[in-house]
Amino acid sequence: MVELLERTFIKNKEDVENPQVRERYGMLSSAVGVCCNIVLFGVKFLLGTLTNSIAISADAFNNLSDVGSSLVTFVGFKMASKPADNDHPFGHGRIEYLSGLVISFLILMVGVEIGKNSIAKIFYPETVEFSIAAIVGLAASIGVKLWMAYFNRKLGRKIGSAAMEATAVDSISDAVSTTVTLISVAAAAFTTLPIDGIMGTVVSAMILMAGYSAAKDTLSPLLGQKPDEELVKAIEKHLMAYDGILGIHDLIVHDYGPSRRFASVHAEVPVTQNVMLSHDIIDTAEREIGKRLNLELVIHMDPIETDNQVTNEMRRLVLEKVREIDPCFAIHDFRMVHGGELTNLIFDITVPVETKTPDGQIQQAIEEKMKAINPNYYTVTLIDRVYY
């Protein structure tokens, strides 16, 4: 069914990096969501009215809120596909994340409202009429919601959409909450306890948990989450495949929305290599890797000395001392500058972003370790945080 819908409504459906194709996926997801949820709302509202069940009515209005969520998804994809302009040179892709966040807030609002009504039903219960039609209708609703979860998760993972993933989570929570509602309706035939209010409260709690989870997942890329590990490894692998590039550091990846990634990195090249050749290698790497990984890549060229035995041995010694402080630390851009009796050891220290030790304390510890070897060694260091 999913494949049929893709083939019918989405041209060039495999070109998921294309903003226009992404927009069509968003429109398809929204249209399916609106149609299914309007039908489910109508059926459940009717059943809730006939059986006098707050749990069924709450479930109905949860589906109505999902109609709003689908419309938000549609607007989000439509706006995210707009090209870059003078005010937004990196495009509008992050609107997709914002739409997912709005959906999360809508889910939370529905959960709070259902919780208030359900708690009131516990203290002031009303008789719930048992109905075979309600049981059948709710069971069918569970099947529809499970299919919608599968549909949105498949599309969301295919195009890397946080908004669709949030919608899939919401559909799963709807299926679970409807199952709880079905249990409360069935239980009405066997007990006079306020099962309806209790189950409505359980439904509310499930909806709130789903909303919180979706909000957390969509908020992370807006705040600036660490880049995907596979992307980092791919950039490193492709760069190190070029002859003339000896190492890389200071990799930073910026996410401006799905398919709108920008990266910068420093590439180490031999100082003895012809500068025009090094520049040509860097230009080629930027162009080829950017196209292969669908990102804008900027590479800074760092010439390093590789054929000086004294420098190489000192680099090895400095790295050893740095890793005595923390095995996760590393160095790059190492240089030795001799000035009479004094020797300046100039290098950058890379430390994990979660390192709590102050920069000055790290630099002081390295300075003391090198002076213990030779009092004429002076370290000139810069701390670099690793953001991946």
The overall strand count is: 6
Strand content: 15-25%
So what's the overall shape?
elongated
CATH topology of the largest domain: Alpha-lytic protease prodomain-like
In helices, the fraction of residues equals: 55-70%
CATH architecture of the largest domain: Up-down Bundle
What does this structure look like?
The protein is of the alpha/beta class and 388 residues long. It has three domains: 2-223, Up-down Bundle (Alpha-lytic protease prodomain-like), CATH 1.20.1510; 226-305, Alpha-Beta Plaits (2-Layer Sandwich); 308-388, 2-Layer Sandwich (Alpha-Beta Plaits), CATH 3.30.70. It has eleven helices and six strands. The chain has helices spanning 2-9, 19-51, 54-80, 95-123, 132-159, 162-187, 195-223, 229-240, 275-293, 309-325, 359-373; strands at residues 247-255, 261-270, 295-304, 330-339, 342-352, 377-386. Strands 1-2-3 form a three-stranded mixed β-sheet, with helices on one face. Helix 2 (19-51) packs antiparallel against helix 5 (132-159), helix 3 packs parallel to helix 7 and helix 4 (95-123) runs parallel beside helix 6. The longest helix has 33 residues, at 19-51.
In summary, what is this structure?
It is built from 11 helices and 6 strands. By secondary structure, it is an alpha/beta fold.
Topology, pairings included?
Layout: H1 2-9, H2 19-51, H3 54-80, H4 95-123, H5 132-159, H6 162-187, H7 195-223, H8 229-240, E1 247-255, E2 261-270, H9 275-293, E3 295-304, H10 309-325, E4 330-339, E5 342-352, H11 359-373, E6 377-386
Parallel strand pairs: 2-3, 5-6
Antiparallel strand pairs: 1-2, 4-5
